[in-house]
Amino acid sequence: MEKLILLFAIISFSAVAGVSENATKPVTLVALQKDSAQYLNICKAAEGDCDNETDIWTVKNKNDIFYLTLPQLQLMKIKKEGEVYSKIIMWDFSKGNEIESGLDDELTKNDVYIYPALYPLNKTKMAVALVSKWSTSYSGGGREEEYANFMMINNDGSYQLAFKNIPFSSREMIRACFTEDDYAKKSHCHDESWSILNLKITDEAKEFYSWKFITKSYSWPAFTDKASAQMKTNERIAYPFQLQLQSNK
Question: Which of 1, 122, 216, 234 is the one with CA 20 to 30 A from 145?
Fold first, then answer.
């Protein structure tokens, strides 16, 4: 199966007609080049915690705060003052954050990672997404799914679960061509489906912002042009730390 390309769309909803000016959006983190002098200097400040799988991120147009994502599911915050980099906080998500696929026993979990974005919970609190990847292979196809736990991060290195087991992305391919003639005649030889999560985060003058989870699901039948793919949208609204998501439809 082709590697799933995560298309987690972070949209500025304030630019959409009819949306309240109180809408906010996730903060995208931008990766530093691993061979850059700045990357190496930050790694020194991390006191040897960097390795080949360590990524360093910053907020676009800001150059004083950096985040390291480590393969052990650790997130480190580094601050720059003058020319000096120093470690200020470490969050360790390596234990107690299991995510279930929620569907069946067919899928196998093969990775967990920290998605490079910060998600506003209120005016002072942010969350990060711990994304769990599940997959299985078919003959000529396969299925991949991602689920996220959104964790509120605190300034003392602690964290709290704000949203649990949220469908983050998915893709499935099922082979529909089986003979040489099939492959010779048909340009699209798979039934394909995929889904993408979008977020709309709104300040409603409450303790926490409301989150609208907007999942767009696509279906592209075999032997058809991609223009024939169909899309469905599911929307659910919840506040951080609620146990259940509630549909707004």
Answer: 122
The answer to whether the Cα torsion of 16, 21, 23, 27 is positive or negative is: positive
CA dihedral for 80, 81, 87, 93, sign (positive or negative): negative
Residues 19 and 4 sit within 8 Å (Cβ to Cβ): no
- Quote the DSSP letter at residue 235: E
Cα–Cα distance measured from residue 11 to residue 61, given in angstroms and rounded to the nearest whole number: 18
Whether pTM > 0.90 for this model: the answer is: no
Which stretch of DSSP H or E encloses residue 134?
Answer: strand 126-138
Give me the tens of pLDDT residue by residue for the chain, a chain 249 residues long. Answer: 443 333 333 333 322 323 345 788 899 999 999 989 999 999 988 876 788 889 999 998 888 999 999 988 999 999 999 989 999 999 999 875 655 545 556 778 778 999 999 999 999 999 999 999 988 988 888 999 999 999 999 999 999 999 999 999 999 999 988 888 877 777 888 999 999 999 999 999 999 999 999 999 999 999 898 888 999 999 999 999 985 444 333
